Amino acid sequence: MEYKKILTIQDISCVGQCSLTVALPILSACGMETCILPSAVLSTHTMGFSGFTFRDLTDDMPAIQEHWQKEGIKFDGIYTGYLGSTKQVGYVKNILDTMGNDRCVKIVDPAFADNGKLYPIFDNVYVDAMKTLCPSADILLPNITEACFLSGVTYKETYDENDIKELLAELSKLGCATIVLTGVSYSPEKTGVVVYEDGKISYYEHRRISKGCHGTGDVYASAFTGALMNGNSIFEAAKIAADYTVLCIEKTQNDPEHWYGVKFETALPELMQML
Ligand code: PXL
């Protein structure tokens, strides 16, 4: 397998097992050289901890990019997640558009909402900015809440296959031909992921262990990126990432003190075997 150089752009939550502290080890375990561009530094993630610190790194981005350009640095893959500000989305779009080599795969996880609600620091202006990233992505990786905010389709707790088909059709109008939609659940004990490629829909269904665990979106997106960059098809990568995420939840669910993330490190050997 060719050795790939990936850039991932998302925050450093110092404690909380999300974003870069998840993406970096998972992509490394998948055999990638992993370069990072931190969007912000927080003391913890924002879901469940109170009084977190937040240092926005938006204004550092242009100089970092300029230095990389001077050094002739280009990437085989660019994967973006939780960003620090609306202004930053414009910088990140430019990075997606200019910093990849000619084989570069660009993956955008919108990472701004879940369970019908925006995460604390975001608003509708941010959502509008995030829409402009969609045409720069080869693959968009939203959950259902993010897909609804981006497409303007009303969020519903229950839905059927036709609702999902319509949601994807609306979302694809933003200019992204390939969408991997996570957390699609048609029955209480099952959930899954829908892969939409140029209008064609496929579904991988698996066990649903709990209603939701913090950080699993980042675990999923990182494992998906690692599996895809290892030469798997989009559907196969979506399946590997789902199986790995379920395993991470299983290895965490019996520990009530571990409410803030999943013990993804303990399942890395299994992920590496799946690749
Ligand atoms: O997992 C998404 C995420 C990433 N980064 C920060 C977050 C969250 C989710 O809430 O708060 C800082």
Structural features, described:
There is one protein chain. By secondary structure, this protein is of the alpha/beta class. 36% of the residues lie in helices and 24% in strands. The protein contains nine helices and eleven strands. The strands form two sheets. Strands 3-2-1-4-5-8-9-10-11 form a nine-stranded mixed sheet, sandwiched between helices. Strands 6-7 form a two-stranded antiparallel sheet. Helix 1 packs parallel to helix 7 (216-229), helix 3 (86-98) runs parallel beside helix 4 (124-131) and helix 7 (216-229) runs antiparallel to helix 8. The longest helix has 17 residues, at 234-250. The relative contact order is 0.15.
Short synopsis of the structure:
The protein is α/β, with parallel strands linked by helices.
Sequence-ordered SSE layout with sheet pairings:
Elements: E1 5-15, H1 20-29, E2 33-44, E3 54-56, H2 61-71, E4 75-80, H3 86-98, E5 100-108, E6 113-114, E7 117-118, H4 124-131, E8 139-140, H5 144-151, H6 161-172, E9 178-181, E10 190-197, E11 200-207, H7 216-229, H8 234-250, H9 268-274
Parallel strand pairs: 1-2, 1-4, 4-5, 5-8, 8-9
Antiparallel strand pairs: 2-3, 6-7, 9-10, 10-11
Helix pairs in contact: 1-7, 3-4, 5-6, 7-8
This protein binds 3-hydroxy-5-(hydroxymethyl)-2-methylisonicotinaldehyde (PXL).
